[in-house]
Amino acid sequence: MTRAWILPMLLLLSGSAVATVKVLDGSPGTAAVCLLAFVALAFVNSPLVFPKSISAEEARRRSAVDGRPVVYWRPGCKYCIRLRIRLGRSARRAHWVDIWRDPAGAAAVRAANDGNETVPTVVVAGTPRTNPDPAWVRERLSPSA
């Protein structure tokens, strides 16, 4: 199991435990609601929500060719989830790099953020922006940009 799946798996296990306790207490409806909430949280925090990650080197190469932003992210980051959801379908146009899977990506984020692994960090034309407004990123992803 990779590091990216740890949080979703913990959420599923916790949700199962809470639901079991609720069922044993005689509240199957509450158990179902709790379990659904934990499953939703696990899904949102899983790698399934984000487009397929590529290496930092490959992302930089592709960005140099097509001019699209490189988004450095990590699973479980609420700001990364916010960015991904607010970008909608246009998120697939960006080049996504999971810093937990790519040490070079983590190093690029640390270099842009005074040694901190602050994500999302979006790089457009070689210029990094930390936790940018999703509308700003969406503008960079539009076909006319």
Write the layout of secondary structure elements.
Elements: H1 6-24, H2 28-44, H3 56-66, E1 70-73, H4 78-87, E2 95-98, H5 103-112, E3 121-124, E4 127-130, H6 134-141
Parallel strand pairs: 1-2
Antiparallel strand pairs: 1-3, 3-4
Task: Describe the structure in brief.
With about 140 residues, this protein is α+β, with helices and mostly antiparallel strands. It has six helices and four strands; from the N terminus they run αααβαβαββα.
Structure write-up:
- The chain is an alpha+beta fold and 145 residues long.
- The protein folds into two domains: 3-44; 56-141, 3-Layer(aba) Sandwich (Glutaredoxin), CATH 3.40.30.10.
- It contains six helices and four strands.
- The chain has a four-stranded mixed sheet.
- Strand 1 (70-73), helix 4 and strand 2 form a beta-alpha-beta unit.
- Helix 1 packs antiparallel against helix 2 (28-44) and helix 4 crosses helix 6 (134-141).
- InterPro entries: Glutaredoxin, Thioredoxin-like_sf.
- The chain crosses the membrane at residues 29-50.
- This is Glutaredoxin domain-containing protein.
